[in-house]
Design brief:
Strand content: 5-15%
CATH topology: Fumarase C, Chain B, domain 1
CATH architecture: Orthogonal Bundle
CATH superfamily: Fumarase/aspartase (N-terminal domain)
Structural class: alpha+beta
Number of strands: 10
Largest sheet: 3 strands, antiparallel
Number of domains: 1
Strand order of the largest sheet: 4-6-7
Number of helices: 10
Shape: globular
């Protein structure tokens, strides 16, 4: 449709993201973007099957950056990465904010630079379009490396773990929801989980020379939350740090504050 938002192609603003989250417009993947995603996914698979070590594709993480991971264990490593970072605590963030996180992640991944699989992006889209939104605890992130803890919880349902809700109150085990809808957990593949955990800041920087991308990261620690807006023509990124608890309460009640902060960042 003419009014559809095209992930990975159109200019994403806070206002558009909110409209997608509220079902006022649809977000879609065009055939052009699908081809680009699959092309770069195949590049990553070729690297994984090659002899050259490439960090997080066929190696471990951190101090294990030179340790080669066998093809048979790559999927297990990716799943363990997701599970090990799901350490958030506290009350769930609002359903709308969690949904916005999904929308922003799809937009970043749809630019095709992460090498992630099309079926994983389409599964995230299924959650957005069907309004089954993951439970994400509001405390646990240090606001670095892509907000590991919140994003880990956000994508646990991909592998059949975590919890999902349509109303933001009554959460059900993700595996139960998937089974009811005839879906199965996706098997982790090379770089799949590391892409959704780390890709946010990487994608915005990678696409900066060729397109316009608004990068929004929401995170909370025990004491504060950080809201980051990254623009391709702004260095360093504009950052606003506010009290996390107050921030989430205000944005739940007054979503236009996000739009105001964006205009200030410009």
């Amino acid at each position: 449709m003419e009014n559809d938002f095209k992930y990975g192609q159109d200019h994403l603003t806070v206002n558009l993201a909110l409209k997608i989250a509220r079902g006022q417009i649809n977000g879609v993947l065009t055939e052009e973007i699908k081809i680009k995603i699959e092309k770069n996914y195949n590049v990553v698979q070729d690297i994984a099957n090659g002899e050259v070590l490439v960090y997080s594709i066929n190696t471990g993480f951190g101090s294990l950056c030179t340790t080669r991971i066998s093809k048979e264990e790559v999927g297990k490593l990716q799943s363990n990465l997701l599970k090990s970072h799901s350490v958030g605590v506290g009350s769930p963030i609002s359903k709308e904010i969690a949904k916005l996180m999904l929308i922003l992640k799809v937009h970043a991944l749809s630019m095709g630079y992460s090498g992630i699989s099309l079926r994983l992006i389409e599964r995230i889209l299924w959650h957005i379009n069907n309004d089954y939104i993951p439970l994400v605890p509001e405390q646990g992130s240090v606001g670095a490396s892509g907000d590991l803890a919140p994003l880990a919880h956000l994508f646990l349902p991909i592998i059949g773990l975590g919890f999902l809700s349509k109303d933001g109150k009554n959460y059900k085990p993700a595996i139960e929801v998937l089974n009811q809808n005839g879906l199965k957990p996706l098997a982790s593949t090379t770089a799949s989980i590391s892409s959704i955990l780390f890709a946010s800041s990487i994608s915005s920087k990678a696409t900066a020379p060729s397109g316009i991308f608004l990068q929004l990261l929401l995170s909370t620690t025990t004491n504060k939350g950080e809201l980051f807006f990254e623009y391709p023509f702004t260095t360093p990124p504009f950052a606003v740090s506010v009290c996390g608890e107050l921030f989430f309460k205000l944005t739940e009640r007054f979503p236009f504050l996000l739009i105001f902060l964006t205009s200030v960042a410009r």
